Structures are given as C-alpha cells and as structure tokens.
C-alpha cells in the first residue's frame, strides 16, 4: 500500500487494552491484519506496539501505542471511534 502525499500521521496511546483486542477493534473499523503489529485499510494504516507501564508504586497496565497514517478526513473520525471502543474496554 502506498501512502499518498495527502496522508497524515497521528500517534495515540491507550492504557488498559491489549494489542490483540486493539487489532480486533481496528478490524471492525475496516482494517485487515497484515502482520503481528500492522493493520491496513483502503485509505489508512496503523502500526501497533505494546508495553507495560507503571501507574503507581505497585501497579502496572498494558499500554498500546498506535501510529495511524491516512487520509485526514477518514483518519480523524476513525481514531475517535477507536478511542470510544478502547475506553469501554479499559474501564
């Protein structure tokens, strides 16, 4: 897939959701998983990575970092829709 010159990049992090579940949510939004950390759709792509982060002296959470690239007219509402799903999953 070739990103065209009008594509933008958006980076977001979500805590309390797994990488696996994030990929499932992105698939419901029209993407197809192409490898362990990447999904692609017609007018956007997302790369995912996960890490464990501390949120206090003795508690940790999984944080999924996503790098979205795509048409801004599609990407911005898509990220908002994904965020809504991720917030419901995490809490």
Protein architecture, described:
- This protein has a five-stranded antiparallel β-sheet, covered by helices on one side.
- The radius of gyration is 13 Å and the shape is elongated.
- With 91 residues, the protein is of the alpha+beta class.
- The mean pLDDT is 91.
- It has helices spanning 19-28, 72-90, and strands at 8-15, 32-35, 38-40, 44-54, 60-70.
- The termini are far apart.
Question: Which features characterize this protein?
Answer:
Ribosomal Protein S8, Chain: A, domain 1, elongated, single chain, 91 residues, 41% strand, alpha+beta, 5-stranded antiparallel β-sheet
The assigned structural class equals alpha+beta
The ordered string of helix (H) and strand (E) elements is EHEEEEH
Global geometry: elongated
Tally of DSSP β-strands: 5
Q: Which CATH top level class of the domain at 8-70 fits? A: Alpha Beta
Q: Within the CATH hierarchy, at the fold level, what is the topology of the domain at 8-70?
A: Ribosomal Protein S8, Chain: A, domain 1
Distance between the termini: 35 Å
By CATH's scheme, which homologous superfamily of the domain at 8-70 applies? Molybdopterin cofactor biosynthesis MoaD-related, C-terminal domain
* Proportion of strand residues: 35-45%
Helix content: 25-40%
Strand arrangement in the largest pleated sheet = 1-5-4-3-2
**How big is the Rg?**
13 Å
Number of helices: 2
Largest sheet, described in full? Answer: 5 strands, antiparallel
Determine the mean pLDDT. 91
Which regions have little confidence, pLDDT < 50, spanning 5+ residues?
A: none
CATH architecture of the domain at 8-70: 2-Layer Sandwich
């Amino acid at each position: 897939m070739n990103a065209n010159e009008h594509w933008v990049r958006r980076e977001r992090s979500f805590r309390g959701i797994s990488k696996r579940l994030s990929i499932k949510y992105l698939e419901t939004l029209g993407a197809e998983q192409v490898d362990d950390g990447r999904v692609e759709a017609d007018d956007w792509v997302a790369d995912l990575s996960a890490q464990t982060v501390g949120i206090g002296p003795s508690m940790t959470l999984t944080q999924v970092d996503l790098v979205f690239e795509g048409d801004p007219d599609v990407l911005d509402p898509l990220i908002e829709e994904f965020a809504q799903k991720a917030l419901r999953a995490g809490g």
